[in-house]
Design a protein that fits this description.
This protein is of the alpha+beta class and 167 residues long. It has helices at residues 22-34, 74-87, 130-139, 151-156; strands at residues 9-17, 39-44, 48-50, 61-70, 103-109, 114-116, 119-121, 144-145, 149-150, 164-165. The chain contains four helices and ten strands, in the order βαβββαβββαββαβ. Strands 1, 2, 3, 4, 5 and 10 form a six-stranded antiparallel β-sheet that branches. It has a two-stranded antiparallel sheet with strand order 6-7. The longest helix is centred in the middle third of the chain and has 14 residues, at 74-87. It starts with 8 loop residues before the first strand and ends with a strand. The relative contact order is 0.21.
């Protein structure tokens, strides 16, 4: 999977869960991500509690953002994250934004703008989602989001919408 010509890239991964002990799901996913060959953890945000997006008849979420150095191409990183989701009991249903044991998203991959059928980076909802922006700002307050602008400016336009940092 590793390409000897691939450089290390700073990437940001969004983590979310609202089933089967969400905080533990996030912590387990963090550990699993650090065990991917070609990935090194650089920073990890606090855990945040947020109301569900989409259908409201589901439990609230726990979210976090992880910064990693990745030697893997973006699609390989995505495939590894999807394996972790599956290993932690993720069931993909037709309903969008439904309850899940684990959701892992490649939010940012270096300074790249990627538009593929299975991967869009920066993540399409990044600029409007408090549960992504606040933890992202916590670990990267100077970040320039490719094609979107400075993280602080994005945060200024995004209300917390019930988001709470967990201690």
């Amino acid at each position: 999977m590793k390409n000897p010509e691939t450089e290390w890239v700073t990437a940001y991964i969004g983590l979310g869960s609202n089933l089967a002990n969400p905080a533990l799901q996030i912590k387990s996913a963090r550990t699993a991500i650090t065990q991917i060959a070609g990935v090194k953890e650089l920073a990890f945000s606090s855990l945040y509690h947020s109301p569900p997006m989409g259908p409201q008849d589901q439990p609230d979420y726990v979210n976090a953002v992880m910064c990693v150095a990745a030697e893997l191409p973006p699609m390989d990183l995505l495939r590894c994250l999807q394996r972790i989701e599956n290993d932690q009991g993720r069931v993909r249903k037709d309903q969008r934004w439904g309850a899940r044991t684990l959701d892992l998203d490649v939010l940012i991959y270096g300074d790249r703008i990627i538009e593929l059928p299975d991967l869009t980076v920066p993540h399409p909802g990044l600029a409007e989602r408090a549960f992504v922006l606040y933890p992202l700002y916590e670990i990267a307050p100077q970040l320039l989001v490719p094609g979107k602008g400075h993280i602080a400016d994005l945060l200024d336009r995004c209300p917390m919408n019930g988001l709470k940092r967990l201690d």
